[in-house]
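Replying to the earlier thread about multi-chain prediction with a worked example.

Input:
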Amino acid sequence: MSPFTIVSTALSSLGTNKLRTGLALLGIVIGVAAVISVMSVGRGAQRSITADLEALGTNLLFVRPGNLGARYSFAEGASVTTVMEFSGPTRGSMETLTLEDAYALWDPLFAPHVVAVAPEIETWGRIVAGRENTSTQIIGVTPEYETMRNYATASGQFITREQVATAAEAVVLGSTVSKVLFGNRDPVGQSVRIEGRRFYVTGVLQSRGGTILGSLDSQVMVPITTAYYQLSPNRTTSGDIAVSSINVQIDDSGAAEESIQDLATVLRLRHRITGEDDFTITSQEETIRALNDATRTFTLFLGSIAGISLLVGGIGIMNIMMVSVTERTREIGVRKAMGAKWRDILFQFVTEATLLSIGGGIAGVLLGVGVSRLLDGSIDQSLPTVVSADIVLMALAVAASIGLFFGIYPAARAATLHPIEALRYE
Amino acid sequence: MIELSDVTKVYRLGAVEVAALNGVSLSIERGSMLAVMGPSGSGKSTLMNIIGCLDVPTSGAYSLEGQEVAPLSGNGLAEIRNTKIGFVFQTYNLLPRLTALGNVELPLMYGRGRNRRKRALEALERVGLGDRTRHRPAELSGGQQQRVGIARALVKDPAILLADEPTGNLDSRSSAEIMAILTGLNRDEGRTVVVVTHEAEVAAQASRVVAMRDGKIVSDGPSAGSAGYWPGAGDRGAQ
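Result:
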């Protein structure tokens, strides 16, 4: 039988019972649509995570107190904990990194790739302006922080070196904080109270929009010295000023691994470490990779759940094909009497099942793409959906092979029917 | 030339073995018209199935035009059914969702068939249904359906036509038409025609009648009604 004859015969058989064909399709349609929409949400999350993290600045290394690697196996790349540590509000509960450590890292001899260092002290506090108040993350920073982490001021200016040197009561507001406290007025020059102390607003940051890590607009920034003396007077056991983390910018992203080793050497010397490190250094790439791995795993997990519905759809096709073979026993007998060979009958039914699943697959792709479009940005502004060709092709291929797989058994039953018994079948 | 020697066919029904054919030897000349008669259960349908290569004998030898059938695989048998044998069934066995033309094209799909449409149309015209090609079986009378069945049996130009009670479901007028077509195919085109029937009128149109009972041939001879009508029909068909 020519392929054209096989396909047209199968289509005409399927067209005979349209309702049943439609119902058999439905399982595959839903399965494929579910897989595509789940995967597109996952891909979108992955893409926005990468974009958000890259927006934090480029070629960054993060030095944090405490040995995360000792508590969680870092070598296996299961760095979800790092990620949570990174994005969570209470970063580094241990006080082992000092302000002096930060400046020691800016060492052209031991760490030649380092171009900028920005230590930070993080804390939380209540900020009050007139009748308005809000609870925000307060970051004590140095001027380097602005360019390293891609901040820019919408009005006024960022924390200056003089303010750091004098531990000035100056604060730069995130755009959301500014809006909550001052509405649309320009707050530069106004005074606010942070944890009961008077600060002057010297700048407002440009809005950076929501990100997958939370809003960067609901923070305020103060000079790092002010943060230490007035808001978060944490000391290390040796009595030095403790910092929450140290941002290090290097000149070449390819030198990240090398620089991590350089920085570790400096810190080990300073901390007189012979055994376990009391700090953890991660690169931005590593963080992106870890987050992407986590998202991918989660997406795959959801995708496989959606895939189960595809499997159920396949079983639906098998069921319909079994019924169809039984109903058409006599037809099979007639075809065999007319000289149909074993493989002619097999191909006919396998083709029907495969056409069913491919048809369902195509409809499912259309539905899935439509659902993804609807979901785009509607769950969360910062969560786009990304439909990529590989997902669509994969879903189609899986659907087709499911049809093939679940079509073979009923088709083989049809093909092995004895012609006489098939002809006698009532 | 159909040659059966000492053919038996044993069916197993649970623990019981039933011999549907019990040592049947029969040879049918090319171009002859043979009627097989007998009550139900006599084994005539089983004989027909074996001649038609729908089934294989339990023991004994069957050769069709010099070819031994026993060693053939399922595909080999299918090939013979497709190229050498045309079946006409009591219940027509047309596929309801296909048109008359589609049904007649069916055997052409399973083989190296070119010009399917043209050959199917020719076959329908030969049975006088050139104007009913687009009709589905449900839109045709019993006699017309059986004529479509004959057209389907003819379309591959087989040497042998096997008709199992071809008039069993028809009124006498349609029966006469169908038998006229079948006898014509034998007489004018030299095809071997084997008709299974229990109607004496039908059997009377054959040149030779074989009677069966309990899986055995109990009588074999020229038909009473036809002996004088087409003398030497077998010889003429041997060309």
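The first strand of chain A starts at residue 60 and ends at 65.

Feel free to reuse this layout for your own posts.
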